[in-house]
């Protein structure tokens, strides 16, 4: 039996991992009914590649979204709701992120707040505002259990947010604000998974690896194509057994 087409929303979709997710989802085995590709400046030069994709694929809908701004998130949710209706949103991928590489002594209140707004508050607000659309997807689905084809929130995480393995990399990647925000995202995801498991909405954390992107830098170990290929494969395999899991792009469980 053919897989049911899904509706997907990706934040930070204009470049790096987000743009690569859009590309690979359009080429993937699972049919995409609607793909909402969100970014801060859809008409700017950094979104030209995304605009080119949207022209070729009518199921791609580009929406302006500042993932650090609640008003922008609410407006985006209304736009998405008007398009998906009672079918809801099957998969929300919180990918947008900001990296402040400051040490403890260099970190400022402004830098910390900016990082938390995008990396922690953003995913929290996105989950809250898109919850009605995720619940609608559960109601409309005939798929048992939990899966990304039914209703799921995947938060793009980082092993830099792992407290247990911090000693292995803290001297190389200081990034105090970023680390704290990603550790907070881990807790947010676990709490959301517990609170909303009765709604049959899956929550998972995915570490993309050290990727050669604007954020990861030229020294990254893998390219965006390899990272996203792995992450999408992991997403497709997720079930209720991985609810609240912290995994890398190969599906390996990471320590908290």
Automatic annotation (TrEMBL):
Pfam families registered for this protein in UniProt: adh_short
GO cellular component entries: cytoplasm
Stored CDD domains: carb_red_sniffer_like_SDR_c
GO molecular function: oxidoreductase activity
Domain of life per record: Eukaryota
InterPro entries registered for this protein in UniProt: Fungal_SecMetab_SDRs (IPR051468), NAD(P)-bd_dom_sf (IPR036291), SDR_fam (IPR002347)
Cited SUPFAM superfamilies: NAD(P)-binding Rossmann-fold domains
Family assignment from sequence similarity: Belongs to the short-chain dehydrogenases/reductases (SDR) family.
Name of the protein in its database record: C-factor-like
Species this protein is from: Sparus aurata
């Amino acid at each position: 039996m053919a897989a049911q087409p899904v509706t997907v929303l990706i934040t930070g979709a204009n470049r790096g991992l987000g743009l690569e997710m859009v590309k690979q989802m359009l080429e993937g085995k699972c049919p995409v009914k609607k793909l909402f590709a969100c970014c801060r400046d859809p008409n700017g030069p950094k979104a030209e590649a995304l605009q080119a994709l949207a022209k070729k694929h009518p199921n791609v809908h580009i929406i302006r979204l500042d993932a650090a701004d609640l008003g922008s998130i609410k407006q985006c949710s209304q736009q998405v709701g008007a398009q998906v209706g009672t079918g809801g949103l099957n998969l929300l991928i919180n990918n947008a992120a900001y990296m402040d590489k400051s040490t403890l002594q260099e970190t400022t209140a402004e830098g910390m707040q900016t990082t938390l707004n995008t990396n922690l508050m953003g995913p929290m607000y996105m989950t809250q505002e898109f919850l009605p659309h995720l619940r609608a997807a559960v109601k409309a689905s005939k798929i048992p259990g939990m899966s990304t084809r039914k209703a799921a929130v995947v938060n793009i995480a980082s092993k830099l947010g792992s407290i247990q393995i911090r000693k292995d990399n803290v001297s190389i990647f200081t990034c105090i604000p970023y680390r704290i925000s990603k550790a907070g995202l881990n807790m947010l995801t676990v709490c959301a998974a517990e609170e909303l498991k009765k709604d049959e909405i899956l929550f998972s954390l995915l570490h993309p690896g050290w990727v050669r992107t604007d954020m990861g830098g030229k020294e990254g170990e893998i390219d965006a194509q390899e990272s996203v290929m792995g992450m999408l494969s992991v997403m497709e395999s997720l079930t209720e057994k991985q609810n609240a899991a912290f995994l890398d792009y190969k599906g390996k469980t990471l320590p908290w």
